[in-house]
Amino acid sequence: MTPVVRNRRPVALVIARSNNSAMSETHALPVFMPAIPRQRWACHSCGNCCRTLVGHLFEEERRRLDEQAWSAELGVEPYVRAGRQWVLNKHPDGACVFLDENNRCRIHARYGEAAKPLACRIFPFHVRPVHGGWQASLRFDCPSVAASQGEPLAQHHAWLGELARTLDHFAPAAEVTPDLRRGLAAAPREVATIVRLLTRRLEDRRDSLRHRILAAARATDLLQGAQLENVRGRRFGELAALLLRVADDDGSPLPAPPRPRQRAMLRQLVFAHAEHVSLDMLLAGRIANWRQRWRQLRAARCFRRGKGLVPRLPGARRDVTFQRVEAVPRPKERGREIEDLLLRYLLARIDGHSCFGDGYYGWPVLTGLSALWLSLAVIGWLARYSAAQAERGHMAFDDVAAAVGTVDRAASRLPALGTVAERARLAYLSREDGIASLIAAYAPLPSLPA
Ligand code: SF4
Q1: What's the distance, Cα to Cα, between the start and end of the chain in Å?
Q2: Domain boundaries along the sequence of the chain
Q3: Which of 114, 139, 177, 293 is within CB 3.0–4.6 Å of 124 for a Cys-Cys bond?
């Protein structure tokens, strides 16, 4: 029987668990799709993922590539070892060795879509084992996802369910429930409650998106400071709803402008997000990694000071100053589309459970949510940088979409973002309304006054 999960659409699939004799029977498991109204997607063969991502291979996929004997045709090895894993090989410009001159995959062209590695087939979706099934989320570093182009998300359920059948390697023996706050384990029902309350509030269009986001961010801060130990189960839901209403009432006035230290912390976080994991980095030896680390430390110091030229971020074409970046005004055109993009991004991360627990460095739910709200300020800074790079007078939709893609690609993938130091930064900023101040000052929300 297919389980019914409120607010989500299960897809029936059969997972054969073969790594344990006791698991040799088959299980019907659902895939939970994130509820993101107006989200569409279809692959438009831009080749972006083939140029920017590192494709990990399962052992059987590696063997299949061997049987297909690609080395002679490609002129290079089809895959390489990176640490303990095998990954698809890349050209020096970052493009996958299987990407042809028409942005098509050679494996797909010769053997069909089903012959491609799972990492390539499933992108831009991502699935993770959760209580009773697989939780799907969506990645915004695919331009078609950011622009919401293609078929409605619902049309991909069956296809994703088919792909998930091959994931028996990851079938969970038991669910790992995240903490609500550090040291305070959450019940699945409490996680579902907070996800439901926040997604409903974000989608309530009776007031501005700015107001909704500030209310959600402030409610998260209030929950962090509440005595949650004695308020569990149904009472936790009542408290969360109450604090959201309190934060709503406080959400009208704009927060105070961020203080210099808060701005410096944001710039450091921007730098931490902008790092890009390339195959070269994975393959680099220890000495190369130390050199890279030294360059990063120097650049991180520059970001903290925030004066003079911005150290060039990946993809930069020209030098710009910090002053020039921070002076770029808010978006003046396509405001509704930009708000829609930001809302879809937030819903995907929250309802896709990719901002806490197993979806985000094992972080507690409330800490992960704080990081998500703050990521809007990071997106705003990166969108300004992109506009300054293009010598535009204001942020355009494409600047914001590129920034959302950069932040979403970094989230849960870059080790630096999951450190104790990052949690300490969030704890500091959560005090004195720092996260709300940075969102108000930097998030690319057209409805905010300049
Ligand atoms: S980035 Fe998205 S649209 Fe572009 S090739 Fe990859 S899946 Fe297709």
Answers
A1: 54
A2: 12-42+133-170, 54-120, 179-250, 260-442
A3: 139
